[in-house]
Design a protein that fits this description.
By secondary structure, the chain is α+β, with helices and mostly antiparallel strands. The protein is built from 2 helices and 9 strands; from the N terminus they run ββαβββαββββ.
Amino acid sequence: MRLFIQIKNNTPFEHPILEDNFIQAFPNLDMDNLPEEFAEFIRVPQPTMTPFQVCEGCTYERDGDIFKDVHHIKDMTETEKLDKIAEAYSNLPEGWSLNEETLQRIFPTKPESGNWIFDFEQNSWVENG
C-alpha cells in the first residue's frame, strides 16, 4: 500500500495518508503525477538499536521526489551506560550473571551430568525425571 503526504512551504504537513484515504480525499489527483503540494511517502522502520542507544525522535525528510522517515538515534554517554548496567545488575536474580555488552541475563551454570531443567519459580536447576 502506497503512502502520500501533503507538502506546505516545502515541508511535510501532518502525517502520511494511506493510498485508499488519499484517493477518497483527493479523487481528481493523478497519484503518478502529483502536484508539488503532495509527495509519495515511504515508511522506514526504526533501526535495531543496541541497549546503549536511544531514539530521539523521527522526522520526515525529502529523498529526491519522495519523503521518508528519518530516525534520530544517539549513543548514550558513558555515565548513562554505567547507570543502565547498574540498573540491570540491581534486577538480576541471585546466581545469574550479566553480559554487560548486551544486558542479557545469563542462567546459572547447569549441572554437567543428568537431565536438568531450569525452574524459574525456584530460580534453580532441577532434575527432570
